Each structure stands twice: as C-alpha cells, then as structure tokens.
Amino acid sequence: MSSTPLMPLHRSSPRLATHTAPTGALHALDRRVFPGPSGARHPACIPPSMSTSLAGKVAVITGSSRSIGAAIAKHMASQGAKVVVNYVNGADAASSVVSAIKTSGGTAVAAQADVSTIAGGQRLVDESVKAFGGIDILVLNPGIMDSKVLADVEAFFDAHFATNVKGPLLAKAAASVLPAPGGRIIFFSTSLTGASTVSPTALVYTATKGAVEQLSRILAKGTTVNTVSPGPVDTPFFRQGKPEALIAAIAKSAPSGRLGEVDDIAPVVSFLASPAAQWVNGQNVSVNGGFV
Fold first, then answer.
1. Catalytic residue among 205, 229, 270, 276
2. Taking 80 as the threshold, does the pLDDT of residue 27 lie above it?
3. Where are the beta strands (DSSP E) in the chain?
4. Coiled-coil intervals in this record (predicted)?
C-alpha cells in the first residue's frame, strides 16, 4: 500500500488558511465582538436593524399606572421611547410613574381612558397622537381576573371580555397611525392557556386570554404583532384572593423556586418592541421561568 505524505495544513490548505489571521487582527476582532472590561460591545458590531434601542419611538402602554404596566413604561423610557402612561382611575399612580420617568431623564405623559370600550380606546389613540405626533408601539397590558365557580360565571363574563378582549381591539383604532413596517403591537395573555391543568375558577379569564392570542395571530399582517404570556408574577393582581400557603406552593413549584417579578417581564416586552425583534411576528412568548 502506497503512502501519501500528509499535507502541511497550516500553509497549503486554503480552507484553513482563513483561520491563521495575524495576532494583531485577532486582538482587533476580539475587541469588536466580545465585551471588554467595561462590558460594552463595539457599536460597529450591532447593526441598526438589530438594536434594542427605542430612541425616537412613541410607546403607548395601557394600564400602566402600576405593576407590570408601570415596569414596562419605565423600561421603555429607559431605552429612549416617549411613553404614554394610560390609566382609568389611578391618576396619582399614573402621575408617579410619569414623574419617575422624567426624573430618570425620560419623556412621558399620562392619559386617562377606559380601554374596555372602543370609544375609550379611540380616545387614547387620539390623545397619544396629540401629545407626540404618532404611535410606534402599542402594548395592551390590562386585564381582570375574578375567580368564580362555574355557576357564577354569567355575572362577570361580560366584564372580563370587555376588558380582556374588547380592550385589545383598540389595536384597530391604532392601526391607522402605526407605521408599517416598523409598528409594534404587543398583547398580553397568560401561561395558563398552555398549562396542563387549570382550575375551573379560571375558566372565563383563561378563555379571554385564548381569544387575545388568536387576535394577535390574525392581526400579524403588515404590522408586527406578538403576545407575551407571563407566568405567576408577584403583583397585587396575582395575590388577589389567594392564601399565603397557596402562593408559597406556586412559587415552590416553579423551576426557579420563586415567583416572577415585574422586572422579569418588562425587558422582554421592550425587546419585542425593538428593531432587533423585526423577524418575530405572530408569536406567543412565554415569560414564566419554566413554569408549566
């Protein structure tokens, strides 16, 4: 059997020669691609289409005077967005969120509107356009959940669907002013819609959120529309009507061993509103720490 001498790969293989860059070039690449001591990446490595900045954008967040909505408003403002803080009754709470944003160097206004009605949704759109000249991002955050046994559902069925489903239809009113392409609509659902077991007392709430998920899929044409489905998040909304023992058991059942926090949710919503998420459309994004 004849033997063929091995080729000197470091010189004669054109495929591998591309990996033998001079040390100086590798160091330059290192500085451009990997974070330095400050943790910052070289600006040249992040094209505008992949930026998570919201500079120059106008974001309208419904129900943003407290809890998850307030956290989203503050986070989007920190990323450069001009924010409309919507509320129904909590004027003082909304003013507090606006003040916090302004203190941090951001731009925000408060706008009262009941988005459980189509007229209220249109009013919010009109006020937002009046304040900032347009809308780029619409986050449909508010929801209500009243746990009742099946025999009592009729009493609060309409209220749940008015707030949780009709409210998100204000996206239709906003569609005429959202830029296409580039506009963002973000709905809110719940991880309960994908859970293997759901309490009968959550029947109506879960049904409304299933409707919201379908809305987002249908509307994801021409405008980027996604849904965020949080798991158990430690808010007054979540704690309402639950004994401490149940809350502790829910937290223990999560892989992380804790409930979510509002600041676990806000950055994901900001990402979906950013140019970096331009190829994420019609999706339901679970933000639940692995909770099933």
1. 205
2. no
3. 58-61, 82-87, 107-112, 137-140, 184-188, 224-230, 284-287
4. none
